[in-house]
Structure formats: structure tokens, C-alpha cells
């Protein structure tokens, strides 16, 4: 069988058609599915045939979405979730037992940090953190009960990059399951499984939808591990709704063209910011000044949609900058068509001590820009006038 390219698979994945032979996949808004007879029902429950029983388990729309993500990530199987966090939580809950241990980068999404520090300990699962610039310490954190090595790359909000090839080698050597949150890069820019990751999780809410409409999540990986995640999830109920799956499947058809433009715009924004006198430094994976530029070039096709920079003047300057923004949005989301600016030190990370913030690369003046799909000169003009005010 000839293998199609990424963009083609995103569009030409086989869909379930009704008698009307729809060109674009229809929406299967149905909680359950009917059986032909008693024998069909018995065989279906015994899992002797693959078919839809109940939309908490599978649904044609969620299957279409999962199949596309599996093709994109080069994974065997997957399961779709209502949110990115339910994908992250269910992966840990399904694969870990009480007494197990996790090693993770310290720079992780806020709710994932809460999961590691507040909730997993309730089931006697502890997490040890390494700093993004101290990956050489990972092996010293591994214990006999360590089961999962976890990381996000690029990280949020400081846009650090972790070496996936190295993480893959460490996981292999110590027989750990490597779980990568690939939300910032998307499978279009980076395929963690090629570097030895076992499970890839996503918040589909971000670039996969890309238009700020629906929440969703997905976990993909080898059949045996996904089976564990599937059994946990079909019994505990974090399934993606058919409607959101339908929206997300259509969004994936344009992922490559959207992400191409996001990256093109983001690089221009990063290059502009680097020349601005009010800016101390800019972090963008494909700028030569990025501390992990070489690693980014090795594992990413382009630099992504997120740019971080430090404005001169600390917290006050950061808040003033947000107040002077005219066109871009002040919003908690990212990976949207609309450019979004945030100031982590006074918002998402304000509860952390200054020391803890600096540990994850959030200085007082750090601003995160999720560069959208507007004409980039309008975005740059807005940032420029806000920096100069
Ligand atoms: C947003 C995000 C999540 C959580 O996803 P939700 O869809 O909001 O639950 C997890 N990881 C990363 C890196 C994110 O950006």
C-alpha cells in the first residue's frame, strides 16, 4: 500500500458514510447504537467484533478523529477525551498503580503540575522534577518504582525545548514509559514517537481545533497501553462528545496549512521583538539565540506558534503592556486564529513564589504571545504600539 503524506491523511481518512453518501463526514449525535439480534448483542459485548455500542466507549466521529491523530503521530491506537486534562489524567490513572513514581520536567502545564503535587499523592504516587536545563540529572531521579517519564516540549509559557531523542534513550535504558504532551508542537511539527515516546497526549483545544471553539483531548500510542487507557476511560467516562469530535476532525484537515502560517507569523514576531529596545530577550525555538536552538532544529519542522519575551520594567511593565494592547486578545487560550497575549507573573503563575516562578523561566516581565493568523504586520503594529506606550 502506498503511504500518503501528512496533509493527505488528514483529509482522506476513511469516513463512515450513511446511505446518502456524504462527501464530508456526517455528525453521529447518538448516545447508543442498536443491535441486529441477541447474537449480535452478545458478540458485540464480548468484543468479538469491532463496532459502536455506546458513545462513552466509541462513536464514529470520535473514531474518525482518533484515526487521524494516530496517522499523524505514527501511533497504533488512541482514545479521545473531553479535554486535554482528562487525556493527561486518564493516562496516568490507567498506567500507574499506588506506590509508583513519576519523573517529569518541572515546566509543565499548570493543571498537570497540580495533578502531580496535589492529586496523584492521594494514591501514593509521587513525582520528582528536573529543570529543563538539567536533563543530565534525570537518571539520578529514577527509582526502582519509577514507571513514567513525562515532559512537554516546547514548554508553557517559557518556550523551552527538551531533547526528545535523549528522553527516549533514558526511557529505553530504564524501561520507563515515556509520555510526551505534544500540544505546543502538534504532530505536524514534531513526532515524539519517532524519538522513542510511547504515549503522546494532546490538548486538542489548542492548535488542533485552532479556532477557539471546542475543548478536546487525545492520547495515542501502542495497542497494549492504549487498551489500558481505553478500559479505564470507558468505565470512568471522560469521553469526547461526538459534536466536538466532528468539529476537531474537520479542523485537522487544515492543521498543516494553519500551523505553517502560525509559524511563519511567529518567526516574524520573534525577529521584530528581538530588535525592540524595550525587550530584554526573546525565546522562540527557531531563533539562533534560543538556548536549545540545535535541539529544536533536530526535532521540529518549524518553531511553533508561541513566542515568549521579557519586557523591561518587571511586573508593572508587563501589566502596562497588556493594558495598552488594542487588537490582540487578553485570553487564557492559545493556538487560536486570534493572537493572544498573556503576562504569566501577574495571572496564571501569580500564586507561585518568585523563586518557583524563576525555576520555570517566568521572570516578572515575561510575556507570552500565541501568534495567530491575522496579517502579521497588524500583529507587529499592535505589539509595537503597546511596547512604546
Ligand atoms: C491547555 C493545555 C493542557 C490542558 O488542556 P485542556 O484542553 O485545557 O484540558 C495540557 N497541556 C498543555 C501543554 C496545554 O497547553
UniProtKB/TrEMBL annotation:
Gene Ontology MF: a single term: transaminase activity
UniProt keyword Protein biosynthesis present: no
EC number: 2.5.1.-
Domain of life (superkingdom): Bacteria
Gene3D superfamilies named in the record: Aspartate Aminotransferase, domain 1, Type I PLP-dependent aspartate aminotransferase-like (Major domain)
Residue numbers bearing the N6-(pyridoxal phosphate)lysine modification: 206
InterPro entries to which the protein is assigned, alphabetical: Cys/Met-Metab_PyrdxlP-dep_enz, O-succ-hSer_sulfhydrylase, PyrdxlP-dep_Trfase, PyrdxlP-dep_Trfase_major, PyrdxlP-dep_Trfase_small
Pathway entry: Amino-acid biosynthesis; L-methionine biosynthesis via de novo pathway; L-homocysteine from O-succinyl-L-homoserine: step 1/1
Cofactor names: pyridoxal 5'-phosphate
Catalytic activity reported: O-succinyl-L-homoserine + hydrogen sulfide = L-homocysteine + succinate
Keyword check for DNA-binding: no
Keyword vocabulary terms for this entry: Amino-acid biosynthesis, Aminotransferase, Methionine biosynthesis, Pyridoxal phosphate, Transferase
Stated family: Belongs to the trans-sulfuration enzymes family. MetZ subfamily.
Function, as annotated: Catalyzes the formation of L-homocysteine from O-succinyl-L-homoserine (OSHS) and hydrogen sulfide.
Quaternary structure, from the entry: Homotetramer.
Name this polypeptide is given: O-succinylhomoserine sulfhydrylase
Species whose genome carries this gene: Galbibacter pacificus
Phylogenetic placement of the source organism: Bacteria, Pseudomonadati, Bacteroidota, Flavobacteriia, Flavobacteriales
